[in-house]
């Protein structure tokens, strides 16, 4: 502002002096010059002190010029002012000083511009760390030269009160209704806490990135087959588990696509869980007396858990909203989740698991949506079961599954619909009770529907219903094994700030066996989550 003011002041004084000289070939009259100074002061171009000083100098020199000879004074400087085609030569030193001030201001402006350009160049140096503009919930991004470093995460906690509805325990069921005792717990929801570090850069035209995702829980962890997710241990001196779900790298270009190597969320069933509103709440608890690292949400009551699996996968470029992904994954064992020898198991794999997915994103007027479909194939070898007759040869089966789903958003309303079917897939988790004790595959299927509405930008209500079925295999007689898990869930979400969301939820869960056994329970949960 000071530079611009000086330039404007100098030019105004120069023009003022030129106009004054045009009025008189010798010297401007005091009243003409005074009028111009009055105008400049009224416009704010001159302060009171500047106005008094310039007026005094002009009056003094005007009086002296009346007795000067026409001979030029030694050392006198001239300045010119142009307005249209009028040109006047000014011999007044006051005008010269104003012109010099304008020249100095112009030089200062040029120096400032050069300094700014130099600063911008130096900011591109690898030795300078810059911070990108912060977007709430998207993490903090720092740039060190060509490398971007992003740190993001979330923390949640809930009080849950579980009331059993009674019944007889169901093997492989997700309801806790047969516990006969009310249960209270302070726990995580379907999400544990999370801290995610991502580094990214571009080298030789290739976009490179690495991600490390650490997901600790609130409650003490118990050792078991599921590691940090094996369940809780409500005793003193315990510590929570740390679930390092994400350890992967990516490399690709916009025209080629992206290759991923490492541990990340698998493809089959991934959009089902990512579209599930209970990601921000609790859903079915799976037990509250000694909470595990997470609740179940809608896992086992609408979809099979996608899981975080070591993989080498390829995602194509997005073409008009369409993208395909395929990969090879670490094979997983057939697992007897129900216990009591009700299902076959396996531990040998000569080939990888293969998964693939196709997604289509679209917008039609105010309707936005996604349609997806995915598949899974894995060979289970050397099956072990109480009723398997191998005849001296190892028994093996090919487990396979497919799904389809959609998520639609129109104004404040949102709809999710999902369906899956598998053979040897099992229920709740991948390959849980998917093969009978005689080595025959069990069929399974399930679905869920979810509707949500944003009444305001901050407040949303969501309701959903889901079911997962596990069917008999030929010659499979297990009356205590789960046949059906289902639940109804309703929740309210209020975004108190950009970070903080308050949650209240009710969930009713039922499990039914093939025989007469069944159980149900109800859970009320309330808590909060922050995302940064």
What does this structure look like?
Helices cover 17% and strands 42% of the residues. The chain is built from 5 helices and 21 strands. The protein has helices at 2-23, 30-42, 48-65, 93-123, 270-274, and strands at residues 79-83, 86-90, 129-131, 140-144, 147-167, 183-187, 194-203, 206-220, 240-253, 257-265, 308-315, 322-329, 353-364, 367-380, 397-410, 413-423, 443-454, 459-470, 482-495, 500-513, 518-531. The strands form 2 sheets. Strands 5-7-8-9-10-11-12-13-14-15-16-17-18-19-20-21 form a 16-stranded antiparallel barrel. It has a two-stranded antiparallel ribbon with strand order 1-2. A hairpin with a 2-residue loop joins strand 7 (194-203) and strand 8. The longest helix has 31 residues, at 93-123. The chain is elongated and about 125 Å long.
């Amino acid at each position: 502002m000071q530079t611009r003011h000086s330039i404007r002041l100098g030019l105004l004084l120069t023009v003022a002096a030129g106009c004054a000289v045009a009025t008189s070939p010798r010297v401007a009259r005091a009243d003409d010059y005074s009028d111009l100074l009055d105008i400049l002061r009224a416009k704010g171009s001159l302060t009171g002190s500047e106005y008094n000083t310039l007026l005094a100098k002009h009056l003094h020199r005007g009086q002296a010029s009346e007795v000067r000879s026409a001979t030029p004074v030694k050392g006198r400087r001239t300045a010119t002012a142009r307005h249209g085609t009028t040109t006047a030569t000014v011999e007044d030193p006051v005008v010269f000083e104003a012109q010099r001030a304008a020249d100095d201001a112009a030089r200062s402006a040029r120096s400032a511009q050069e300094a700014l350009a130099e600063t911008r160049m130096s900011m591109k140096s690898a030795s300078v760390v810059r911070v990108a503009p912060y977007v709430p919930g998207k993490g903090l991004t720092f740039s060190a030269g060509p490398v971007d470093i992003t740190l993001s995460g979330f923390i949640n906690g809930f009080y849950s009160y579980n009331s059993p509805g009674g019944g007889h325990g169901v093997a492989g069921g997700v309801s806790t209704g047969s516990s006969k005792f009310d249960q209270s717990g302070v726990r995580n929801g379907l999400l544990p806490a999370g801290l995610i570090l991502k580094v990214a850069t571009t080298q030789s035209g290739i976009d490179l990135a690495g991600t490390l995702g650490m997901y600790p829980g609130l409650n003490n962890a118990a050792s078991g087959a599921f590691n940090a997710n094996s369940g809780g241990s409500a005793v003193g001196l315990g510590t929570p588990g740390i679930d390092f779900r994400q350890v992967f790298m990516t490399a690709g270009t916009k025209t080629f696509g992206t290759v991923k190597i490492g541990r990340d969320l698998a493809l089959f069933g991934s959009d089902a869980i990512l579209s599930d509103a209970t990601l921000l709440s609790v859903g079915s608890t799976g037990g509250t007396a000694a909470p595990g690292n997470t609740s179940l949400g809608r896992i086992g009551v609408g979809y099979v858990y996608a899981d975080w699996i070591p993989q080498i996968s390829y995602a194509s470029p997005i073409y008009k909203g369409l993208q395909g992904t395929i990969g090879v994954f670490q094979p997983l064992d057939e697992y007897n989740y129900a216990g009591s020898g009700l299902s076959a198991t396996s531990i040998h794999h000569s080939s990888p698991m293969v998964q693939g997915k196709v997604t289509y994103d679209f917008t039609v007027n105010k309707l936005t949506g996604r349609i997806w479909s995915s598949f899974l194939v894995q060979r289970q070898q050397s099956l072990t079961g109480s009723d398997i007759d191998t005849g001296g040869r190892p028994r093996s089966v090919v487990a396979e599954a497919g799904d389809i789903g959609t998520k639609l958003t129109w104004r404040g309303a949102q709809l999710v619909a999902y369906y899956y079917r598998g053979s040897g897939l099992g229920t709740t988790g991948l390959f849980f009770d998917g093969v009978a004790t005689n080595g025959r595959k069990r069929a399974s299927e399930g679905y869920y529907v979810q509707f949500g509405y944003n009444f305001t930008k901050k407040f949303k209500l969501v309701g959903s219903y889901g079911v997962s079925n596990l069917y008999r295999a030929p010659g499979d007689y297990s009356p205590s094994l789960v046949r059906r898990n289902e639940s109804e869930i309703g929740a309210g979400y209020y975004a108190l700030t950009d970070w903080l969301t308050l949650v209240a939820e009710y969930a009713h869960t039922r499990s039914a066996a093939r025989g007469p056994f069944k159980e149900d329970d109800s859970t009320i949960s309330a808590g909060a989550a922050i995302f940064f």
